[in-house]
């Protein structure tokens, strides 16, 4: 199920969180959940939950709550979590190695299937303990074209991230999650999300200082 482009970006960013909450409710044998229960679990207010859900039509009835099993499957459909999604990773430094060992598929149906690094990296030609092969970056186009992988995670230095991103897009990648604090210049058809750990930590420290 495709996400309506008219849905606000803030709402779209909460979709995976809603899915996680409903999976937790389901695991705890909760059959119905009110907007307040959902809001409390999310750390937001009930009005935001109702407004978010209003973009998808009638997901529940006032006074009856939301059917947990139905909503869990609804968000699984939206997020395409009924089938396994393979992604590739470029950059096997500290963050990259941590991601290689992170068990995405224990929580959602996504997994890192291939990894790449500089051709002279000692890890090239080996596999992780989970069997993920690590290849030299000079072979990246060849390997992408042999698969149906359309999503990549970038954990390469800022000085190299644009060059690597261009290579990925030319090979057919349509979505990139980048850990480099650099805005990429790519075609509008390519979706890019950024993870800036330094900025997030600085924001945390700022709010901590405001409470002192």
Automatic annotation (TrEMBL):
Biological processes, Gene Ontology terms: negative regulation of DNA-templated transcription; response to redox state
GO cellular component terms attached to this protein's record: cytoplasm
Keywords, sorted A to Z: Cytoplasm, DNA-binding, NAD, Repressor, Transcription, Transcription regulation
SUPFAM superfamilies: NAD(P)-binding Rossmann-fold domains, Winged helix' DNA-binding domain
Domain CoA-binding: 80-183
Pfam families reported in the protein's UniProt record: CoA_binding (PF02629), Put_DNA-bind_N (PF06971)
DNA-binding region: 17-56
InterPro entries assigned: CoA-bd, NAD(P)-bd_dom_sf, Rex_bacilli-type, Rex_DNA-bd_C_dom, Rex_streptococcus, Tscrpt_rep_Rex, WH-like_DNA-bd_sf, WH_DNA-bd_sf
Domain of life per record: Bacteria
Compartments it resides in: Cytoplasm
Main subcellular location: cytoplasm
Molecular function via GO: DNA binding; DNA-binding transcription factor activity
UniProt-annotated binding residues for NAD(+): 91-96
NCBIfam families reported for this sequence: PRK05472.1-1, PRK05472.1-3, PRK05472.1-5, PRK05472.2-3, PRK05472.2-4, PRK05472.2-5
The protein's assembly and partners: Homodimer.
Record PANTHER family: REDOX-SENSING TRANSCRIPTIONAL REPRESSOR REX, REDOX-SENSING TRANSCRIPTIONAL REPRESSOR REX 1
Similarity comment: family membership: Belongs to the transcriptional regulatory Rex family.
Role this protein plays: Modulates transcription in response to changes in cellular NADH/NAD(+) redox state. Binds to the promoter of the aldehyde-alcohol dehydrogenase adhE gene. Functions as a redox-dependent repressor of adhE expression.
Protein name as annotated: Redox-sensing transcriptional repressor Rex
Gene behind this protein: rex
């Amino acid at each position: 199920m495709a996400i309506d482009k008219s849905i606000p970006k803030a709402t779209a960013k909460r979709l995976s969180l809603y899915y996680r909450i409903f999976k937790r409710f389901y695991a705890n044998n909760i059959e119905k959940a009110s907007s307040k229960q959902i809001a409390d679990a999310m750390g937001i207010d009930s009005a935001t939950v109702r407004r978010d859900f209003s973009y998808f039509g009638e997901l529940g009835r006032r006074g009856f709550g939301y059917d947990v099993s139905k909503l869990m499957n609804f968000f699984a459909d939206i997020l395409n979590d009924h089938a396994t999604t393979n992604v590739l990773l470029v950059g096997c430094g500290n963050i990259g190695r941590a991601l290689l060992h992170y068990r995405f598929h224990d929580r959602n149906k996504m997994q890192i299937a291939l990894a790449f690094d500089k051709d002279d990296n000692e890890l090239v030609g080996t596999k992780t303990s989970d069997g993920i092969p690590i290849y030299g970056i000079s072979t990246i186009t060849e390997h992408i074209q042999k698969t149906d992988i359309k999503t990549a995670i970038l954990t390469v230095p800022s000085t190299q991230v644009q060059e690597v991103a261009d290579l990925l897009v030319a090979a057919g990648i349509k979505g990139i999650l980048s850990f480099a604090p650099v805005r990429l210049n790519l075609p509008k058809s390519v979706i890019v999300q950024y993870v800036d750990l330094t900025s997030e930590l600085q924001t945390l420290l700022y709010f901590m200082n405001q409470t002192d």
